[in-house]
Specification:
This protein is an all-alpha fold. 68% of the residues lie in helices and 0% in strands. The longest helix is centred in the C-terminal third of the chain and has 15 residues.
């Protein structure tokens, strides 16, 4: 999930243990922080 990595500066070792639902929650937070309209 490149958007999470770019916004939060997290690499694969941080995101690999997360399940899909947790990744999607973080993706939403990354989009909000980046100023994306949803």
């Amino acid at each position: 999930m490149a958007d999470i990595a770019v916004i939060f500066h997290w690499g694969p070792p941080v995101m690999d243990p997360m399940d899909l639902s947790e990744l999607m929650q973080w993706r939403g937070r990354a989009a909000k922080r980046a100023g994306a309209d949803k």
